[in-house]
Write a structure and sequence with these properties.
Chain lengths: 116, 248
């Protein structure tokens, strides 16, 4: 499943104009401590957080996650969106909280072993 | 100097954190200046200033802000008016949630002698809606210094919560706790290069008031402290490496 398919299924807002929605999502990760995300998020994960700071983009780039879902209606500022666009990082917004978002992701099959 | 102290206005502080006792302990340690930095409030700063009158101890009014990212920042001011102007902005933003002393502890506004005047009913120890960038800008626009608090700690620290010190954030310096050494912190922290590092007490009890950070200044003003953090104009600061002193 791609980031774009997840965005469509969960009605997430695609923030920015240059998000790479074609990345394949292989798993999920949730934390609001960026120090934890740096250590725990894996390439291909979709990272769920309520942080919207510019450093989120740097950590997303560093960990090579497939995309970031920013929960609880938190809004990245213009610099953050600009940097995400430069790096083609998909920032996806939702008003829902992290628990509900993760529950929906699991329901979609994120995190389950891909067969075949 | 110890520029990070709590009073009984901070729910987490011990009941002994009263103006005359704080001043007495600071003088005993030979400190030239302290700052009063309660969580999201400056309501007791004036009382400590008054308690220090005539003692030679300089008291900077300030506040420990908690940003939207749950990063704590020290806001330090020369004048009480500026601290109170920040407090007004903070109180507007905090909303009306009331403190529940049975869970969080009491938040006591006191006079210069340490007598209780009233409880602060707002729940002070919570995150503000300001993101860190605008929070730093706000402090600086009011003429204050803004220092990232206990940046080495796993909770409410800039590194734990944001992964590293954001490049371009106009901080005036960084504080580390008594548990860390400056060199190790600098080496292990991306973004710390170029920022002055101090280690204040973050005192919640009298025994935690700290003389670990020494500054060489012309006089005890905030402008001079700023120079010391920047190691400019011959001013400097040094954090003593004797952190393994007794902790109580």
């Amino acid at each position: 499943m791609t980031v774009g398919e997840i965005a469509a299924a969960l009605h997430l807002e695609v923030i920015g104009a240059n998000a790479d929605l074609s990345r394949e999502v292989r798993g999920g990760y949730a934390s609001d401590l960026l120090s934890c995300a740096m250590a725990g998020a894996k390439p291909g994960d979709v990272w769920v957080t309520l942080q919207a700071h510019l450093n989120v983009v740097a950590v997303a780039s560093l960990t090579e996650v497939a995309g970031v879902i920013i929960t609880e209606g938190a809004r990245p500022d213009a610099d953050t969106v600009k940097r995400a666009d430069q790096e083609s990082i998909a920032l996806l917004g939702t008003k829902e909280d992290t628990f509900s978002t993760v529950a929906r992701l699991v329901k979609l099959g994120v995190g389950e072993p891909v067969s075949g | 100097m110890d520029l990070h102290l709590h009073t009984v206005l901070s729910a987490c502080a011990e009941i002994e954190m009263l103006p005359p006792l704080i001043v007495e302990r600071a003088l005993e340690l030979g400190l030239a200046a302290i700052a009063i930095t309660d969580h999201n409030s400056a309501e007791n700063a004036g009382a400590v200033r008054e308690a220090a009158l005539g003692s030679g101890l300089v008291v900077f009014p300030g506040m420990e802000l908690r940003t939207r990212e749950e990063v704590d920042l020290l806001a330090l001011f020369e004048e009480e008016g500026a601290a109170l102007a920040l407090q007004e902005r903070v109180y507007q933003a905090l909303g009306e949630d009331r403190n529940r002393p049975e869970f969080f502890g009491e938040q006591i506004v006191v006079d210069a002698e340490g007598n209780p005047i009233r409880q602060c009913n707002r729940l002070l120890q919570r995150a503000l809606p300001f993101p860190i960038g605008p929070a730093v800008e706000l402090v600086k626009s009011l003429g204050g210094l803004c220092i990232a608090a206990h940046a080495d700690r796993p909770t409410y620290g800039i590194v734990s919560n944001l992964g590293f010190i954001p490049p371009g954030l106009p901080l005036d310096g960084v504080e580390i706790s008594r548990y860390s050494e400056v060199d190790a912190f600098r080496q292990g922290t991306p973004g710390a290069a170029g920022l002055g590092v101090a280690s204040f007490g973050d005192a919640h009890r009298l025994s935690e008031i700290s003389d670990r950070t020494e500054m060489w200044l012309e006089d005890a003003t905030l402008g001079e402290v700023d120079l010391a953090f920047r190691q400019a104009a011959g001013r400097r600061l040094r954090v003593r490496p004797d952190r393994h002193r007794e902790q109580s």
